[in-house]
Amino acid sequence: LCMKGWALCIKGRTDEGLPILLQGVGMWRGMGAKLRLSQYLGFLAEAYLVAGDVAAGLAAAEDSRQVATRTGEMLQ
């Protein structure tokens, strides 16, 4: 779902893609998955930027950074 939603957004179909991407991120979090969550949040940040919602994009990017730091996916 995350990849499908992101791909739709990148193609300019944000009205269709964002809800799918958000559902995928919610499911990933709901499962308690930690790895790759930062990547999906990065996709979400990009999708928000494509949709013109800079504030939401920056918030998703910060969320992605925090998750990556906690999981060790981003070394400091």
Secondary-structure map with pairings?
Layout: H1 2-10, H2 14-30, H3 37-51, H4 54-71
Low-confidence stretches: none
Cα separation of the termini: 30 Å
Largest sheet: none
Summarize model confidence as the mean pLDDT: 94
Strand content: under 5%
User: What is the rounded Rg?
Assistant: 12 Å
Content-based structural category: mainly alpha
Instruction: Please trace the helix and strand order, writing H or E for each element.
Output: HHHH
Principal-axes shape call: globular
Can you characterise this structure?
The chain has 76 residues and is an all-alpha fold. The protein has helices at residues 2-10, 14-30, 37-51, 54-71. The longest helix has 18 residues, at 54-71. The mean pLDDT is 94.
Please name the defining characteristics of this protein.
76 residues, mainly alpha, globular
